[in-house]
Design a protein that fits this description.
By secondary structure, the protein is an alpha+beta fold. It is 49% helix and 11% strand. Bound molecules: protoporphyrin IX containing FE.
Length: 569
């Protein structure tokens, strides 16, 4: 705290000036006027060696569910309470934008949905959300099973070779395998492009072998490079990437620019192809297309064919798209590319991470693995999952959501207040809440919410069945507790059922558009893996270290021993 005492004899005017200066300095040093909010004085050294979100959990237990984290001149409000999260994400959502996250992601995703400011976001969301309609999702199940089938066949072949040499298990980095699988799925689902990364060796090794490999390599590298870059940027006080010439002078930035260009060129080509075969029609008609006969069921196809999405008035030259018409028409094509890029990144590593942590948790809980396999045997036998059978794979679905509870992707949601606001105090918080000024940076810690001892029994334990047992908890003012009837027909628990105690896909208007896609994809992939194989961790669980970019991933891979199920012949 800075104390500034006026000793001036010039009267109240000078004293006021000094007091104001003192306040300004105090605010600056403590990161803004956040009144009586508890403060966690974050030492940068607290963060060394472990991800930020874990340190935020310890401070949550110490300082409560709304606290200010001050790192020198930089400060964030950290929110770990469902009532406050609901206020920021839903009730007063349009008073916030993505703040630091937009600064970090805009160079990558442009004006894509995730970083977009509210004015850009509103019309784009209206265009994209209908693309995830029921028939599209149903048709995607085939894409999920086909791609997962390729992964399973690959494991079977490797295992067969191993058995011929007298072995019974193969050692695999399943995180890398899931990453390839999720990339293949997102490529096909969003823009009907088959990366084929599951069936190729790691694209990181096979660089520049052919134009196709180099393309895959570039895209994968760009995705990982991007996430690494995002993590790096989010922990840096100085936005070094904004320095003039940084993109040319700093080698990593140069590489980053090259990766981005590769992705953009690829997406431009795909948009061009889709436009050449455009069949314009109304949204309702598109949503009722016969998907069983559609060669290209992708989201890009939907967005290009949709009447009103003004994408055909353009010229193509040197692989770039130029629009002949006025500036207004220029927006849709560029934004389309930004949105595809956003979905490629948003839908790839997140889903891979869910599968990674689901296996990590199951491998430590063999009885749950057996229970899951028993359900799979009953529902699927040796067959593949279908849209209808997903409804019967209840335990697998609960494993997916429990994995997302324990390892939410991303663990923190980032916001910045556009105007001053009054945050509710939250459960056990200050009764009259906290006033925050415009420009306040906020972390809504989904990780803390999902492991809050106030809202979950044994919060750190892997207990998929907990979602069946969760009942309305009484006595917490302002929080409605758990109640499945609030979201009738939902296949998976969500933020509505839990009144924001469980929000793996965020909540409110900026909730994930791909949530059902991702949940079904994870359920299919997990069911098909466990249908055939038993999985064990290669080393002790403690050796699997966590690191974060936009998601929680492992430091050195999820190394597992994979073998044929002993109880199926
Ligand atoms: C937004 C999580 C998969 C596309 C979000 C948000 C979360 C999230 C938490 C909200 C971010 C915020 O409020 O700041 C996840 C997880 C996934 C997943 C955990 C996988 C398990 C996908 C997939 C797609 C996708 C497969 C697309 C096919 C998006 C988009 C947004 C978004 C476009 C921005 C929505 C908007 O602002 O309107 N995602 N996501 N996500 N996600 Fe996902």
């Amino acid at each position: 705290t800075i104390r500034c005492q006026s000793t001036s004899t010039d009267g109240p005017k000078t004293r006021n000036l000094l007091d104001n200066a003192s306040n300004l300095l105090t605010n600056f040093l403590s990161g803004g006027s956040l009144g009586s909010m508890p403060v966690a004085e974050g030492a940068v050294s607290d963060l060394f060696g472990r991800p930020l979100f874990l340190a935020l959990y310890d401070w949550f237990l110490e300082h409560g569910s709304v606290y200010k984290l001050a790192f020198g001149p930089k400060a964030f409000v950290v929110v770990s309470d469902p009532i406050v999260a609901r206020h920021i994400l839903r009730e007063n959502a349009f008073s916030y934008d993505k703040g630091v996250l937009a600064d970090i992601l805009e160079p990558i995703m442009g004006k894509g949905l995730i970083p977009a400011d509210l004015d850009t976001w509103k019309p784009r969301r209206r265009v994209i959300a209908p693309g995830f309609h029921a028939l599209y999702l149903e048709s995607m199940v085939k894409v999920f099973t086909n791609c997962s089938g390729r992964t399973i066949s690959k494991f079977e072949e490797l295992l067969e070779r191993e058995c011929l040499q007298g072995g019974e298990a193969i050692e695999l980095n399943l995180e890398a395998e899931f990453s390839s699988l999720a990339l293949d799925i997102i490529g096909l689902g969003v823009f009907n492009y088959d990366f084929g990364s599951v069936t190729k060796e790691s694209p990181i090794i096979k660089v520049w072998l052919s134009s196709n490999h180099s393309l895959t390599y570039s895209l994968l590298r760009a995705v990982y490079g991007t996430l690494f870059e995002a993590e790096h940027r989010s922990t840096f006080y100085v936005p070094y990437w904004k320095f003039p010439l940084a993109r040319w002078l700093v080698p990593r930035q140069r590489k980053f620019q090259k990766d981005l260009k590769d992705i953009n060129d690829c997406l431009d080509g795909l948009i061009r192809n889709a436009k050449e075969t455009r069949q314009e029609t109304d949204v309702e008609k598109l949503q009722q297309r016969d998907y069983s006969n559609l060669k290209d069921a992708s989201l890009l196809r939907f967005l290009v064919d949709m009447r009103g999405a003004d994408v055909d008035d353009c010229q193509v030259s040197n692989g770039k798209i130029y629009l002949a018409a006025n500036e207004k028409d220029f927006i849709p094509t560029v934004e389309l590319r930004d949105d595809l890029m956003t979905m490629l990144i948003a839908g790839h590593e997140t889903t891979a991470a869910v599968l990674t942590w689901a296996v990590f948790l199951l491998a430590q809980n063999p009885s749950k693995m057996k229970k899951a396999q028993a359900e799979i045997d009953t529902v699927l036998g040796q067959g593949r999952p279908t849209f209808d059978s997903l409804k019967k794979l209840e335990f697998i679905r609960l494993i997916v959501v429990e994995s997302l509870r324990l390892f939410p992707q991303p663990p923190l949601l980032i916001r910045r207040s556009l105007k001053s606001d009054s945050l509710p105090g939250g459960h056990k918080g200050k009764k009259d809440g906290y006033a925050i000024p415009a420009g306040t940076d906020i972390f809504v810690s989904v990780y803390n919410l999902h492991r809050s001892p106030y809202f979950w029994d044994k919060p750190h334990e892997f207990e998929p069945e907990r979602f069946l047992a969760q009942r309305n908890s009484e006595g917490i003012e302002g929080w409605a507790g758990f109640d499945p009837s609030r979201s009738p027909g939902a296949l998976y628990p969500n933020e509505i059922i839990s009144d924001f105690a469980f929000l793996p896909f965020g909540g409110g208007p900026r909730k994930c558009v791909g949530d059902q896609f991702a949940l079904m994809e994870s359920t299919v992939a997990l069911a098909m893996l466990l249908q055939k194989f038993d999985v064990e961790l290669k080393g002790p669980p403690e050796s699997v270290e966590q690191v974060t970019g936009a998601t929680i991933h492992t430091k050195n891979g999820l190394w597992c021993r994979v073998k044929k199920r002993s109880d199926v012949h």
